[in-house]
Amino acid sequence: MNSTEKGQNDATDCGCPAPEQSSGHKKTINLALQGGGAHGAFTWGVMDKLIEDGRLKIDGLSGTSAGAMNAVVYAYGNMLGGAEGARQALHDFWKQISDTSMIMSPLQKTPWDTWTDKWNMDNSFLFQMFELMSRAFSPYQFNPMNVNPLRDIVEKTVDFEVLNRCQETKLFIGATKVSTGKVRVFTTDEITLDAVMASACLPQLYQAVKIDHDYYWDGGYMGNPAIFPLFYHTDTRDVVIIHINPMEREELPTDASEIMDRLNEITFNSSLLKELRAIAFITKLIEEGWLKDEYKHRLKHMLMHSIRADKILCDLKVSSKFNGDWKFLLDLHRRGRATAEAWLEANYDDIGNRSTVDLKKEFLDIGGGHTG
Questions:
Q1: Is 23 a catalytic residue?
Q2: For 63, which of 42, 67, 110, 155 could close a Cys bridge (C-beta 3.0–4.6 Å)?
Q3: Where can the motif GXSXG be found (predicted)?
């Protein structure tokens, strides 16, 4: 069985329709991919549907943490095997994550949660102990050998020397420089295994990643994901942000775990909100004619789009980001595909013509209600 046939059978197994055949002109977009552990399988589902739909061409990808992994796996698979190669590569990557997690990770659901198909792991004694240990000890103490099975998976999936020569997709991977607190963006020709692992380096779990003379932590602290490289280094005006961390929660968190979960979401959305505030300001300058004619060409009028996860992932807590169960990852994949399908139906005609998200209303004045 070749990879295309296998990819189609796997799509059928997870409830996905056979790939649609595209024809004619494709609209070009950039994708900005948030990080969020196992919830990155939601992004996999979104990307799988966008690729299968066949009407869009991805020019640039900016990603952080799990978003960075989705980005490099997509680009490498697409480079070697086109659209179906990219879909297959993403599928195989997430399957390998699940297989490795089931064997090596001590963080597993309880039998009751498994039987009832609950994806959060708050009831897991081992997860509770792990949380306490990570607050009392650093990874330099509880993991002195710096063991990270995810590193081996990424290394087996992507040949970075080949990826560095990729011409089909522009890649931008963000990490946080520990010494300065600034975001470092690695471009296609700079991306290495270390750069990807730096982008996903949660300092409570893993030792900082050294690249050249500097140390890096998870890129989500300063760019989740970084949007600005897509402005300066691609020719495409349309940017589609694929969110993992909910921007909005209706319920007030009142117990300790709920408060910590919401703080986690707010923290990993804060850098994105800052960038969106700047984008909204520049858009206002352009659209309301505040610029002199001689300066207009210096600013790029970006068209912003957003695939939100607020409602579709509202039942999941932060603990589920550590859940590698294959049924769970396929469920996230299914949710991502369904969300992308609805988004395409509602917004495809606007791509290339106008923004489909009101930045001020939906991200800067949150509280007035979000309907998407």
A1: no
A2: 67
A3: 63-67
Q: Which whole-number Å values give the CA distances from 52 to 183, 258, 332, in the listed order?
A: 33, 37, 17
Contact 92, 157 (CB under 8 A): yes
Contact 130, 194 (CB under 8 A): no
69 forms beta bridges with none
- 101 is an active site residue: no
Residue 225: asked if its preceding bond is cis (omega within 30°), the reply is yes
Say if residues 307 and 340 touch (Cβ distance below 8 Å): yes
Tokens of 161: 């020397």
Cα distance between residue 273 and residue 322, in whole Å: 25
Query: Amino acid identity of 46?
Result: V
Q: Which value, to the nearest 10 degrees, does the dihedral of the CA atoms of residues 213, 216, 222, 226 take?
A: 80
**Residue in this structure with the two tokens 């349309």, named with its chain if needed:** 238
**From the candidates 218, 261, 325, 331, which is the catalytic residue?**
218
Q: Rounded to two decimals, what is the model's pTM?
A: 0.86
Q: Per residue in 39-73, pLDDT tens?
A: 999 999 999 999 999 999 999 999 999 999 999 99
> Of these residues, 48, 59, 65, 194, which one is catalytic?
65
User: Measured between alpha carbons, how far is 142 from 144 in angstroms, rounded to an integer?
Assistant: 6
Query: What's the alpha-carbon Rg for the chain, to the nearest Å?
Result: 20
Residue showing tokens 């739909």:
53
> Residue 228 has which token pair?
């600005």
Q: pLDDT, tens digit, for every residue of 192-238?
A: 999 999 999 999 889 999 999 999 999 999 999 999 999 999 999 99
